[in-house]
């Protein structure tokens, strides 16, 4: 006890917190070498055609022209707050209310409704704004769980969750193992098993967190799975968080069921209150730099607390102002959503076809900015090391930076996430050509 | 019944304190020159509204900056995709230079040691996460910004132990107060990780003296702990004396290459000097690579919008603008503060002699019925309900002496400030002439007191509807 409160040790440097020195931020993992390789030798169509092509970044660059055209039309003089003295500027600059700009919240609600084809309604007063989904997920975790509690997350999952859900919150992730035998869908057995694993280790489970559509699978979660998940959460009396950040990138709108649709038809508040949705404009609109995320909760207490906590991560009022009118222009958003879907679908078809011609299969996907590619048959050793070795070969020989399944905690080795929306079609063709040639070379030996 | 975390069920956010009545009343009945001239005047909000015209003029002349263009060409895509937590290099450079300019270019700031955050609210919390374990303590001089209770403690689990300052020496930090606070922490079995000061001070509006800064540096040196200097108001200094930053002191004592300089961290923001709280621009500056590295990774949870970084990099890179702005800002703040001080004097009220900030620390002890916080609460309620001014009672800032109030002057027009002073004068004159409180108003005050929490230590000062003020 005395030792703990003694500071008089001039010989020792005062330590930083455990959180500061831990590596839960995840940036020391081996596959960050891929990023380094790309930074040192980035592909450029004209200046560096043999450089590393970045296929590990889930960015949506296929629809910028639509946004730029719209914004140019709206503000031809370039001034966001009106010309000549910028009226509206000071009010906007002063606006730091954690409720968020009402017009912007209404715009977000309407946008989210449009993405779901009107199959669910969103109340603007339940929308809490945060600086990106990264902040939203961490914030929700702070609210729904205490340190050393756990969230169940289906594998494979977005590597960033290790940091976002665990780092500063002290909360654990217990994986729900999924595999290719049923296209990586969550099964009741896997769910129960994960829950039991936590209980056996004396860990209190507070909720299930899914990403729908899934990253890295690039596929939507089936409606019956969602219903089962909700039922499971009711039985165990825990929360259900659905990160729907890729909801606007589903190739065919009819194939996406949001958890909001399921909740829409439920009157029982004790069921609704455990459901929370995360969204962001980083993927569907391709605006990760603007830091626009949101938590939508059917639980008043969560909304109120999340709102207060959002003080640590508010969205710039300048950004809210700029996007408010664009997102509430239903004619524009309708067109955008439709065209964005088509372009992403086309990209997906190009990459899947191209891979098929090279003898490579992918998981049948229907959403997202990436495909889930199966290279298990190429592994010399069917182990994590074997997978990392192959990944290294792809990086060094093919000069393609892709994401190995191990980094996504996939329990089956040999799967890789390959992004297709963060480059031009030409570049995608070149990447496919490199893969082709590589596979040809292998066949000859 | 599924539960939420203890962070939800605790009151760490501080918004259930009785003090929010003032904000509620203001929201119900806000003063408006034309539409509601008898409404409540908001004097509890530390906003800087005095120099917007300068920024607006600049915006009109430089449409590219807000239009996401560079040399007439759209850079929308580049900005939209830019989410690097290192921040926009041009912005960090401009910010570092702006911070240097505010300090008379006497000290230099290395852009690579800057970590951006979504406001200093985020910056302060992030620093806590980096420097303190749950249960560790930071020492803070009282009175302090009520928001610290939330920012430093809520999600981090850290504790605040007050360094008691008193009016006997203008609320300056003394060596014995520092030692006492440290010992108090030890008595409570709390490990002290550092000291956090706001310089210039909120709510005092004064700058820390060199003596105090030297004292602080020596103290953290001997105790082997950190010092966080929140210099969010550094650009609001309007007195004759220059602003002395802790960075000045490190330089003057030749400690820049000493190990202690790694334990000194500065927090900054554009919310007060530039009056842009909505844009969420804060920064941590640290000489410790590990702190910078950890804080930078944590900033993923609160990055500054690239659109905003770009606008501000253009604004702050324009040295003509920054020097004009800083000069004008000083001038206007000085005039406005004088107006408040003389208005108070006319009502027989003095305040702590100040030379910075957007507020004055006002002495209303002579207006208290008794030298208690209960009496302070009663007086505050009268000022809200009868005088119709929303000001901040010292108890909400953890002041140890009842009767002090923070009164803001930079968030309203000259005319509104005039009116506020008139109302106050009338109130003081009317209470002077009725020494005996009538029975009915006594009853009313008693019932108001019943409605509110009896704990005189107020936590924080917002309602659900109120903007995040400092």
Rg of chain B is 22 Å
Apparent shape of chain A: globular
Mean of pLDDT of chain A: 93
Number of separate strands of chain A: 13
Distance N to C terminus of chain A: 67 Å
**Radius of gyration of chain A, taken over Cα atoms and rounded to an integer in Å:** 23 Å
Uncertain regions spanning at least 5 consecutive residues of chain B: 436-440, 449-470
Taken in chain order, the helices and strands of chain A follow as HHHEHHHEHEHEHEHEHHEEHHHEEHEEEH
Q: Give the amount of beta strand of chain B, in percent.
A: 5-15%
Give me the side-by-side strand order of the main sheet of chain B. 4-10-9-8-7-5-6
Summed up, the helix count of chain A is 17
The secondary structure category of chain A is alpha/beta
Structural class of chain B: alpha/beta
What is the strand content of chain A? 5-15%
Structure at a glance:
Chain A is α/β, with parallel strands linked by helices.
How would you characterize this protein structure?
The complex is a heterodimer of chains A (445) and B (470). In chain A, helix 6 packs across helix 14 (317-328), helix 6 packs across helix 15 and helix 7 (133-144) packs across helix 13 (300-309). Chain A is α/β, with parallel strands linked by helices and 445 residues long. Chain A is built from 17 helices and 13 strands. The termini of chain A are far apart. In chain A, 41% of the residues lie in helices and 12% in strands. In chain A, 52% of the residues are buried. The model of chain A is unreliable at 1-11 (pLDDT under 50). In chain A, strand 5, helix 10 and strand 6 (239-243) form a beta-alpha-beta unit. Chain A has helices at 2-5, 18-21, 32-40, 64-74, 89-94, 102-115, 133-144, 161-164, 188-200, 223-236, 259-264, 269-272, 300-309, 317-328, 330-357, 384-396, 425-444; strands spanning 53-54, 127-130, 150-154, 172-176, 205-211, 239-243, 275-280, 293-297, 361-362, 370-374, 400-401, 403-404, 415-419. Chain A has a 7-stranded mixed sheet, with helices on both faces. Chain A has a 4-stranded antiparallel sheet with strand order 9-10-13-12. A two-stranded parallel sheet of chain A has the order 1-11. Chain B has 470 residues and is of the alpha/beta class. Chain B is 41% helix and 13% strand. Chain B has 17 helices and 15 strands. In chain B, helix 11 links the parallel strand 8 (226-230) and strand 9 (264-269). In chain B, helix 7 packs across helix 12 (289-298). Chain B is globular, with a radius of gyration of 22 Å. Chain B starts with 5 loop residues before the first helix and ends in a 19-residue tail after the last helix. Residues 436-440 and 449-470 of chain B have low confidence and may be disordered. At the A-B interface, helix 2, helix 4, helix 5, helix 7 and helix 13 of A face helix 1, helix 3, helix 4, helix 5 and helix 7 of B.
